[in-house]
Amino acid sequence: MNTQLASAKHDSDLTTPSAPSLQSAQPPLLCEDGNALIRLDRIHKVYQMGDVEVHALRGVSLEIHRGEFVAIMGPSGSGKSTMMNIIGCLDHPTKGHYFLEGSDVSRVDKAGLADIRNKSIGFVFQSFNLVPRTSALENIELPLIYAGIPAGGRMRRARAALGEVGLADREHSMPNQLSGGQQQRVALARALVNNPSLILADEPTGSLDTRTSVEVMEIFQRLNRNRNLTVIVVTHEPDIAHYANRIIQFRDGRIRRDFSVENRKDAGEVLMELPRETEDEEEWGGPAGSKEAGTKE
Questions:
Q1: Which of 23, 60, 201, 273 is the most buried (most CB within 10 A)?
Q2: Please, are residues 153 and 144 in contact by the beta-carbon 8 Å criterion?
Q3: Is 0.85 surpassed by the pTM of this model?
Q4: CB 291, CB 184: distance < 8 Å
């Protein structure tokens, strides 16, 4: 998954205030299916690499409804990275229409897309993307600053989001004082703080060990269940994909399989069967922190 492109664009948004209103060259078209949070209609994406055209997506059509938990899978070069960037309003399709919450955002300008990302989409990346010399609470407040939320409201909402991911006691901790799993939970709280319609997670467990990966998936499942929050996880790990209720597999720029998950895994139940980490391991990263400290089985 090309997380660097998506991450770089996301980081740039954290240094530029969002536009005051969504602007586009033409009035947005309305999606005919009002039940679909996301509708892609014959999406193509072509990149020009010198004299060569690279077809990353080839006429992809797809609907994702509000409250679904979807995993997107595929080998390198399958088109899943490009699909992630288009769904996340980080890139435009070359051809076709993308409807988000009923409006066609396919040709919305850069300022308008930044506004959509800030208001409607929460991002979680493999590399966490936390600001190093900023506390957990201040990291979570960043989207609220760019949304123009007053200081008192920002702190209240950031603390609530931190509590929702189980880190209420770490609000003053810097990223280097947190384990990998704790950093990812801070990143997830930051994605939640603006009450988005959609969470996009790009390899969210790629740097985490087994138990910490399941803890993160438990949070996703809980948010999906309790908030009816739409969650899309891009992953290369089949075991992680089976925490979703739907899997979409890409290959050669097309959807090859789109199916419901039978015998979906319940992260809460899986956690009960896993051994608990020691206090030292949790505090310093150990097996519960990162794959560098503890390898996935």
A1: 201
A2: yes
A3: no
A4: no
